[in-house]
Structure formats: C-alpha cells, structure tokens
Design brief:
- This protein is an alpha/beta fold.
- The strands form two sheets. Strands 2, 3, 4, 7, 8, 9, 10, 11 and 12 form a nine-stranded mixed beta sheet that branches. A three-stranded mixed beta sheet has the order 1-5-6.
- The chain has ten helices and twelve strands.
- α7 crosses α9.
- The chain is globular and about 50 Å long.
Length: 272
C-alpha cells in the first residue's frame, strides 16, 4: 500500500497582509504582543480575533493572543474557523492538505480530528476553499508565536447554519488541550462614528451570547454565531478585550472596518 504524499498549503497572503520575511514577521509579532491587557483574563476556551492586514487589525488581534501566553505549553490543538471570502462553499470546508505553512514554519493538520468530523454532512473537503483564504491564514503566525506546538483543525466556513457550526465544535470540544479560534472582522466600510455605534451594539450581542448576528455586523457571523450557541451550552462567559476599527489604527475615518477581540472562559473573571 502506498502512502499518500504530504501536501502543504502554502502561505497565500504573506507580503500582503503581513510580512513575508520570517525575521520581519517575528519582529512585528513581538512588538504587537509586548503589551498584554490588564487585568489578565481567565483561561480562554475560545477567542474571537480579527483578520485584516496586521497594520490595521494586528494590535486588536494581539490584545487577545497575548492572553494565551500562560497556557502556551498546554494547548495542543487549535480549531480555527473563519469565513470564506474568495471561493464559495456549502458547509464547512476542511483541506486535503496535511500542513499549513507560514514564514514561521509549518503547522500539521490534525488528521485525527478531521476523521472525527468526517461523518457530518456539513463537513466537506476543499483545498480550493483554503488556497486563497486569508481569514484563517492571518491567525497562524500569532498562534505560532504564542503557543509552543499544536495541531491545526482549519475550517473555512461557507453557506451553512450556526447550528451546523456548533455541532462541529461539539464533536471536537475536548478539554484544556483544545482552543477554539474564530476569525471575524465586524462592520465594513462605514463612516467612523457609525461604525463605532454598530460595532458597540454587536459587541453587546456577543457578550450576551446572542447567536443572531448578521453579515453586516460581522463577516464571520456564521462561525461567531456557532460559537455563541456552543458557549451558551457550556456555560462560558464572554469578555471583550478590545474594540476598535481601522480609523483607530492605520486608515482614514471615512470608510472603516471594525475589529473586536473577545475571550470565552468557564470563569467569569474580573468584571471590569
């Protein structure tokens, strides 16, 4: 019997969304992660982080990734879900590729986890959905920096329901060894003041674990809603770590994109 040749999903948006040089990328990440929020949050079971170019959303993403440093050795598996932007797909697409590459190295895809969800009708195999997709890729260098070693469960979420997403999360929920990362930006291309109002309302829904966001509120509304359903079921508490937009970081304020960073933990933690 011949073994299948391992296949690597190469970085698609290096030099566009983040530096393509490993040295420059590592330096940027060290700078972004240098100031973790205070007070620290309880151990997150799940996080939501934005997925724009690092110059725009990197500081907001870093605010939540910095919190993971205390558990860098215990997280062994990352369920990473983000919306598809370029290739339409029905359901949640997993890759046939066996690893994902960034300038910081390769991350193995968790084949055991993929086998555990292969029976679900909403799970499909599509390298095409993953090949150009940035929503998952931009999270990987952050994960490679804040965690020691981990296997990846990459899920590109297309046309499906929040309940279907929650079912996949339930199958792979696991314990402290499993971290869930949802990749989503918030409102798109609104004036600064309008975006702040809408994103503030969206954040209130997320904090209330209200799984009824639409795609005007968050481009990753489907995976976010799926997480909110699962978080309710598991009694998790949501906490907002950061909420800004491109007008606060590197863009003009006439048309901005909103970014939020959230954690979901078994403990409620500090209320402030």
């Amino acid at each position: 019997m011949t073994q299948s040749t391992p296949r690597i999903r190469p970085a698609a948006v290096a030099n566009m969304f983040y530096p393509g040089s490993s040295t420059e990328l590592a330096s940027d990440l060290r700078r972004l992660l240098a100031h973790p929020p205070h007070p620290p949050a309880p151990r997150p079971k799940a996080i939501i982080a934005p997925h724009a170019g690092y110059v725009y959303s990197g500081p907001i993403a870093a605010s939540v990734y910095a919190l993971l440093a205390d558990w860098r050795d215990s997280v062994q598996r990352v369920l990473l879900l983000g919306p598809t932007h370029r290739v339409a797909v029905n359901g949640l697409a997993v890759p046939a590729a066996t690893s994902f590459a960034t300038p910081l190295g390769e991350i193995p895809v968790d084949q055991e986890a993929l086998a555990a969800i292969a029976h679900l009708p909403q799970v499909v195999v599509s390298d095409a959905a993953h090949a150009p997709e940035h929503s998952l890729e931009v999270q990987l260098p952050f994960l490679q920096t804040v965690l020691t070693t981990f296997a990846l469960v990459p899920l590109a979420v297309g046309r499906t329901s929040a309940a279907a997403v929650a079912e996949v999360l339930e199958c792979l929920w696991g314990g402290d060894e499993t971290l869930i990362v949802i990749s989503s930006d918030l409102s798109h291309y609104l004036p600064y003041t309008a975006a702040r109002a809408i994103d503030g309302d969206t954040a209130r829904h997320i904090l209330a674990l209200d799984p009824h966001l639409d795609h005007q509120q968050a481009c990753g509304a489907t995976p976010v809603n799926g997480l909110l359903l699962a978080a309710r079921r598991h009694g998790l508490h949501a906490r907002m770590i950061d909420l800004r937009n491109s007008g606060d970081t590197a863009g003009d304020r006439s048309r901005v994109v909103g970014y939020g960073a959230f954690t979901f933990s078994a403990e409620s933690g500090n209320a402030h």
